[in-house]
Amino acid sequence: MHSIIKVQDLGKTYDSGFTALNNISLEIKRGEIFALLGPNGAGKTTLISIICGIARATSGNVLADGFDIVLNYREAREKIGLVPQELTNDAFESVWSTVNFSRGLFGKAPDKAYIEKILRQLSLWDKRNAKMRELSGGMKRRVMIAKALSHEPDILFLDEPTAGVDVELRRDMWEMVRELRESGVTIILTTHYIEEAEEMADRIGVIRKGEIILVEEKSALMDKLGKKTLSIHLQCNLNAIPSELSAFNLTLDQEGSYLHFSYDSTESDRVAELLAQLNTLEIGIKDLNSSESSLEDIFVDLVKEA
């Protein structure tokens, strides 16, 4: 699959000497949902701002669908829609006027049918004549997305799109993002909600202190770094883990009633070995329960290790 965004050796250092981005190289595939994860201050918003032409890089270059964001600014910017973190709208404008005006800013001819289509898609049609100040935070967030889509971009940046949005509305927006991807729009998402990335993303990028520390397919990432735990409820309590089980990564709870075996996806055959060894030692098993680490667990571990 061809890349629609190419970032090469991108750096950003402010006059104060603070380096927000350090030699970042990244390619985003056409038609994918790419989630960019990182703690506060990691450089997520700075990176997006540079790609979208809001901020200037100190070094490096960016291509948006083949157009250099500096040398071919207008062509590159037409390809991109941005939903920023902060809600900024004219409080006294109607929803229709707000979205329609945004389309005109990109030099696009009026298209009432298209504006109606995206308002309906975002469940805003019934609110088309409402003033922005009359809307809830969740509805204002939807209007921001409609504005970003008004000029029919091929690339959509969502910077913390569900911040302050209730759970039900968040689920609706996830569904909307999937529909946009199905229509051919490439989605780049930054989020603090790890479940958002786990639910939607095709690939995950992790940024920390201005550096990309990992880019991986979501499924491959979870297979590679995800940890599994087998909890074994014992029929009789143990005072300590028998020496015969020292080859396994085991822990014993305080009561001595549970053995916990941690392993990764490449060690699944070790479970059968452990159970066989327990049988040999005549350690009775009352119950078994297995769990798998979430993307949040993996993310926290990655940031700690970095």
Throw out a few tags for this protein.
306 residues, alpha/beta, Rossmann fold, Alpha-Beta Plaits, 6-stranded mixed β-sheet, 10 helices, 14 strands
- CATH architecture group name of the largest domain: 3-Layer(aba) Sandwich
Q: What is the fold named in CATH at topology level of the largest domain?
A: Rossmann fold
CATH superfamily of the largest domain: P-loop containing nucleotide triphosphate hydrolases
Q: What is the rounded distance between the termini?
A: 30 Å
By DSSP, the count of extended strands is 14
- β-sheet strand percentage: 25-35%
Query: How many helix segments?
Result: 10
Question: What would you call the structural class?
Answer: alpha/beta
What features would you describe in this structure?
- With 306 residues, this protein is an alpha/beta fold.
- The protein folds into 2 domains: 220 residues, P-loop containing nucleotide triphosphate hydrolases (Rossmann fold), CATH 3.40.50; 66 residues, Alpha-Beta Plaits.
- The protein has 10 helices and 14 strands.
- The strands form 3 sheets. Strands 6-7-8-3-9-10 form a 6-stranded mixed sheet, sandwiched between helices. It has a 4-stranded antiparallel sheet with strand order 2-1-4-5.
- Strand 1 and strand 2 form a beta hairpin.
- Helix 3 runs parallel beside helix 5.
- The longest helix has 16 residues.
- It is elongated, with a radius of gyration of 25 Å.
- The protein starts with a strand and ends with a helix.
- The mean pLDDT is 85.
